[in-house]
Amino acid sequence: MEGNSVSSKAAVYFLISFRELCLVTLCLPLSSLLICFVTAYIFQQDEIHETHCRVYNVIPSISAITGVSPQRYLWRVCVAFHIGPRVVIASVYRTYYRMLLSQLPEAKNANTCRLLDVCYWLNMMEVGALCGVTYVSNRENYPFSWFSMCEYLIASANMAFHVTVMLDFPTEKMVVARGLPELLFNDYSLHWKKTE
């Protein structure tokens, strides 16, 4: 009876595969970047190739293709939807590694937990920096095509890194629920009592 009363109180409001969440998080900036590149290249070629120093860039920078209208609005909306899941993903990684670290001897655990915290806050700084470069207007145009190429390489490497989240958590789900921890705990306790 007690198990039934707990299950009647539990409610799942939102459930999504963590893999699907990561795919959406990856596809938002990637697809918007491609759309911004193609449309800016077709319709605003002069604006995205010429720098402040009147030097022609062979490869327009990400800042140039996402800094012209209407592409800037598409980029800003996609980044806005991209930021929330990035914070969740960073927090999941932190919790996951903290759980793994709890199995280490106490002496190694303290130092490693500090490093884990440093990694987490560096990740948060990266998310904050992405917000900064997206929403704070940058009037500088950097000369020559090397900057643009490096900008694309860094953005691609960053997106590739975040693909690994799908490999680390292939079957996990993100759940927003009420009463679920008690339900899981009670089911585990019932299962434990049956096996004793």
UniProtKB/TrEMBL annotation:
Matching Pfam families: Frag1
CWH43-like N-terminal domain sequence ranges: 18-143
Organism listed in the record: Timema douglasi (Walking stick)
PANTHER family registered for this protein in UniProt: FGF RECEPTOR ACTIVATING PROTEIN 1, POST-GPI ATTACHMENT TO PROTEINS FACTOR 2-LIKE
Gene Ontology annotations for the cellular component aspect, listed alphabetically: endoplasmic reticulum membrane; Golgi membrane
InterPro entries for this protein: CWH43_N (IPR019402), PGAP2 (IPR039545)
Transmembrane segments: 21-43
Keywords: Membrane, Transmembrane, Transmembrane helix
Name of the featured protein: CWH43-like N-terminal domain-containing protein
UniProt GO BP: GPI anchor biosynthetic process
